[in-house]
Amino acid sequence: MLSNATTDIVVVVIALGLMVFIHEMGHFLAAKWVGVRVLTFSFGFGKRLLGVKHGKFSWGNLADESEGTDYRVSLLPLGGYVKMAGEDPSQPQTGDPGEFLGRPRWQRFFIVIMGPTMNILLAVLLLTGLNRYHDEEPAFETQPARIGGVASGSAAARAGLMAGDLITRIGDLQNPTWEDLELKVAMSPNASLPLEFIRNGERAQTTVTPRPEGREELGDVGWEACLPAQVDEIESGAPAARAGIRKGDRIVALNGKPVLCSQALISSLQTNQGKPAEITVARGDQTLDFSVTPYLGNGSDHKQWLIGVGLRYVIIKQLPWPKAFVASLEENLKTCQLSFDAVGKILTRQMSARSLSGPIAIAQMSGEAYRAGIPDLISVSAAVSLSLGIFNLLPVPILDGGVIMLLLIETVIRRDLSLRVKERVVQVGLALLLLLTVFVMYNDLVKTFKPY
Questions:
Q1: Structural domain boundaries of the chain?
Q2: Are 272 and 294 contacting, i.e. CB atoms less than 8 angstroms apart?
Q3: What is the pLDDT confidence band of residue 452, given thresholds at 50, 70 and 90?
Q4: CA 389/CA 19 separation, integer angstroms
Q5: How confident is the model over 288-321, as pLDDT tens digits?
Q6: How far apart, in whole angstroms, are the C-alpha atoms of residue 45 and residue 77?
Q7: Which of the residues 185, 265, 370, 389 has an alpha carbon 20 to 30 A from that of 154?
């Protein structure tokens, strides 16, 4: 437990630190480009450990405060910061064009917005690389939303839904994939969702009401996806191998009854009680029949009748660069839309604020992703980077979005706001940010230690 917690902290410090540093690099590059003097560009916070200024390397704090950028490494590796000349409105302005507040508003806007932009670009680049080389996704996620199983007493069971039903509409979603379906349900706790489905070729309608479940109190209806019955592995010498079934075959029927999902295949094998079974597979354009006699072996948690095959539950994508980039844009755009939708539902109390996550939850997710493998860590890092960019664009004073809002107001009224007004706005923004920080930290602690 302690080892996992330590891993979580180390991983999130490195990952989040690099994301914040890249955010600040966006401000730095933009400031340099428009001619604003950058006094300090630091990796980390706190005491200066080492750095370069005027082309000279030095250890420790600097006694020389003359002009020039101090590229430094500081004690706490929790991101970084950029200090620009003339960015503090409470300090007297000299009229130097190299000062931040001495530049035109459009240039200040450019400097401010480049921070969140770098985080969004990082998310796009990370997912592009993942899509190009090794992106794993469940085989059922992008398939039509067919139900593979329904838990007894669940909301889905009360709505009359059964394994094999094909969902054609839920709420305002037409012909959803399973991924679309799950997202819709998760973000609709306690909402009555009209649902249409096809069973045995006939259309039917019902209403399902997701229940808030788990630490985040997200919607859940108690169904599971239909997992494809496609052969991915063949056990050497097992009944399936002896019968001639091959990797890549899709099992479509058992004893003449259609097999839509792997759950139905497993259930039918148990019902058949080890008797010889006629298995029909689709192989390319062919449909082939095989006689297979199951054996009693070790299943996931008890003895089961098996035929010696492993089914494909994961698809690995390796897209060409252009398609990988387009797929990344689509994934990030979808995440943006879901983020704003979730915030709207939380503010209107359609979703629980428990779904908000803070540093502790991010550390836990990062640690779990690291233990799962590099692809998972890259995927989580992209999501966190995108969230960081979106969060900083919120129109809350002291965040980049708040600065942008003030710049837009000043552009409309064609004059700078008074120092007194800006100070009050910053104070309100700081109070709101502190309250939000305390809330999400409390939220994370409750979700971590409260039993479910």
A1: 103-136+318-452, 147-224, 231-301
A2: yes
A3: low
A4: 10
A5: 999 999 999 987 778 999 999 999 888 888 999 9
A6: 7
A7: 265
- The confidence score (pLDDT) of residue 95 equals 76
Residue 451 has pLDDT above 70, yes or no: no
- In order, the DSSP letters of 55-90 are TEEEES--S---SS-EEEEEEEEEEEEEEETT--TT
Triad 319, 323, 327: Cα angle to 5°: 95
- If phi > 0 it is left, if psi is from -120 to 50 it is alpha, else beta; for residue 190 that is left
Closest among 240, 333, 230, 243 to 284, alpha carbons compared: 230
Chain-centroid distance, C-alpha 392: 17
Q: What is the CATH number of domain 147-224?
A: 2.30.42.10
The radius of gyration computed from the CA coordinates of the chain, to the nearest angstrom, equals 28
Number of residues in the chain: 452
Beta-bridged to residue 177, according to DSSP, are 144
Gap between the terminal Cα atoms of the chain: 18
Token readout for 30 is 């933009």
The backbone torsions φ and ψ at residue 149, rounded to the nearest 5 degrees and listed phi first, read: -170, 155
Under DSSP, is residue 229 helix (H, G, I), strand (E, B) or coil? coil
Distance between CA 217 and CA 412 in Å, rounded? 42
- Mean pLDDT across 147-166: 96
Kindly state the average pLDDT of the residues 218-231. Answer: 96
Which of 106, 126, 26 lies closest to 376, judged by CA? Answer: 126
Q: Is 170 exposed, middle or buried (0-12, 13-18, 19+ CB in 10 A)?
A: buried
Contact partners, residue 123, CB within 8 Å, separation at least 6: 332, 382, 383, 385, 386, 389
Q: What is the pLDDT of residues 333-369, one digit of tens each?
A: 999 999 989 989 998 989 988 888 888 888 889 999 9
Res 3 pLDDT > 90: no
Q: Calculate ∠ Cα 123-117-11, nearest 5°.
A: 40
Q: Which helix (H) or strand (E) holds 234?
A: strand 231-234
Helix 419-449, helix 359-372: angle, nearest 10: 50
Q: What is the DSSP letter of 91?
A: S
Residue 377, pLDDT > 90, answer: yes
188 - beta bridge partners? none
Angle among Cα 248, 250, 252 to the nearest 5 degrees reads 170
- Whether the per-residue pLDDT at 450 is higher than 90: the answer is no
**Domain spanning 231-301: which CATH class is it, in words?**
mainly beta
The distance between the two most distant Cα atoms of the chain, rounded to a whole number of Å, is: 91
